[in-house]
Amino acid sequence: MTLATEVKKLTESKPFYAVAGVGDYAVEKLRELPEQLQKLQSRRSEFTQDLPVKARAFTQELPVRAREVADRAEGLARELPEKARGYADQLTHKATEVYDDFATRGRKAVSKASGEAALELEEVSEAAEPAVAEPVKPARKTRTTKAKA
Predict the structure, then answer these.
(1) Cα–Cα distance between 147 and 31 in angstroms, integer?
(2) CA dihedral for 92, 95, 101, 105, sign (positive or negative)
(3) Which whole-number Å values give the CA distances from 82 to 6, 71, 88, 117, in the listed order?
(4) Model pTM greater than 0.70?
(5) What's 129's DSSP letter?
(6) C-beta separation of 21 from 104 below 8 A
(7) How far is Cα 125 from Cα 117, in angstroms, rounded to an integer?
(8) What whole-number distance in Å separates Cα of residue 72 and Cα of residue 147?
(9) 87-101: per-residue pLDDT in tens?
(10) Contact residues for 17 (Cβ-Cβ < 8 A; gap 6+)
(11) Which of 2-6, 12-16, 24-28, 131-135 is most confident?
(12) Helix, strand, coil shares, percent, the chain, to 5
């Protein structure tokens, strides 16, 4: 198979577009990272100021909370199998949605990039093509009439 055929087959596959969509999403989120870090740093300073007061209150409430958690844990253990099936179904549905969303996003990113890349490739291929010589046409023989002497 030629390289062009392989590339065409690859670019027509949904997994290819899903991966491209994931990459596009990752780039978007990485661009938002500096802003997110600033927000977290400001929250950290607020949290550390109130830490001694919060720690004292937490240790006083600990025995009561422990009893409440133990009671709730028994009820949750009984409901777990049914809820696990429901969560698995929801997760499967959500995973399919996310996969489709990434594939759609990838198609858009690839079509945008391939449009730009196609122009670049066209320029490169034109520059790289060897000059094609025009076939030489044989010279026409002209008939001359001999002068009568």
Answers:
(1) 90
(2) negative
(3) 46, 19, 10, 51
(4) no
(5) S
(6) yes
(7) 12
(8) 125
(9) 999 999 999 999 999
(10) 102, 103, 104, 106, 107, 110
(11) 24-28
(12) 85, 0, 15
Say yes or no to pLDDT of 35 above 70: yes
Which amino acid makes up residue 65?
Answer: R
Token digits for 132? Answer: 């094609």
- pLDDT score at 17: 86
- Supply the DSSP symbol for 12: T
Average pLDDT, the chain: 79
Spatial separation of the C-alpha atoms in residues 12 and 6, rounded to whole Å: 10
Cα(46)–Cα(51) distance, integer angstroms = 9
Report yes or no: 142 and 62 within 8 Å, Cβ to Cβ: no
Instruction: Name the band, by pLDDT with cuts 50, 70 and 90, for residue 6.
Output: confident
pLDDT for the residue 4: 76
Tokens 């969303």 sit on residue:
101
